[in-house]
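Page 42, continued from yesterday. The earlier attempt failed because a stray header line got pasted into the input along with the sequence. Redoing it now with the clean sequence only.
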Amino acid sequence: MAKLGKLDEQEVAKIRWITGLSSLVVTSRLVLALQTGNIMHRYNNFTHDEYSRCECNPPYTAENTISSRSDLNAPEGTYPISAFGYRIHGGTDVKIVDFTLIHQMNMVATSGPTYDDVPPFEWSKLPVSVPRPFMHPDKWMFKPIMTNFPDYTVTPQTKLPTLLKVLPKSA
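This time it went through. Structure tokens are written below.
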């Protein structure tokens, strides 16, 4: 059985069910630490993941993973639905919180497509010609950061509704 850090495939399957493959983070007993949560939500081992198997050629898609990356699919591949094929599409970031961080209105955030189990996204290495958007870096390989928003700390003395009163109202 494949391991993902300290998580096995069955635990990853449970997490997929809980999160619905969304980018929202669900705090659970399986997420033992922020680092593990970050690794878990950026998971994409599509060539070996049973949930990525499809009636495709090659026989898998990078779309059916926790952090999808359709740019990893073969442009010349054949797929039963277009969403399984090659395109510039996929998970773009992850935000992780725990009980303490949520009350501080802070998070651990990682920008860009996943690169833990797969090569980082690089505009210059795409197998098809796609112009790089203005001001984009070529290589998307950023380390996680911890936000620090000290003015928005929620404590028993400052309740969240009070903080929301100071935020600008939308038009």
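Notes: Residues 9-19 form the longest helix (11 residues).
Reminder to self: strip header lines before submitting.
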